[in-house]
Specification:
alpha+beta; three-stranded antiparallel beta sheet; 3 strands; flat
Length: about 120
């Protein structure tokens, strides 16, 4: 079970994975953005995608959290109080052509500025 955080601490967002065998925390800096609508659904879809690409569960969570943070950073500021994330942020990057391969590589980064 993944307990999603990010609503309590103003400086960091910590999710907690609880399995039969262990407990693991995943922490990233909080993104200063109003584009938070759908972050939970985006996170679960991203985790499922990385699992389908063959990543282990903890790695899938790390990459998914990075993806959600980038989707919040790149989101347009439309909408009312709470806008949507930008699921296609990577298409507007200079390195958009390399993203399919980047997402399949086994190495992940917790650096929010670089792809996983």
């Amino acid at each position: 079970m993944l307990l999603k955080g990010g609503h309590f601490d103003e400086a960091r967002a910590t999710d907690v994975l609880v399995t039969r065998h262990h407990v693991e925390e995943f922490t990233v800096p909080v993104v200063d953005s109003r584009s938070t609508h759908g972050t939970g659904c985006t996170l679960s879809a991203a985790i499922a995608t990385f699992l389908a690409l063959g990543q282990p569960l903890p790695e899938s969570i790390r990459r998914a959290k990075w993806y959600v943070a980038q989707a919040m950073h790149g989101a347009p500021t439309w909408g009312g109080e709470q806008g949507p994330t930008d699921h296609f942020f990577f298409l507007r990057r200079d390195d958009a052509g390399r993203w399919p391969e980047v997402l399949r590589t086994p190495r992940a980064s917790q650096n929010q500025e670089s792809p996983p």
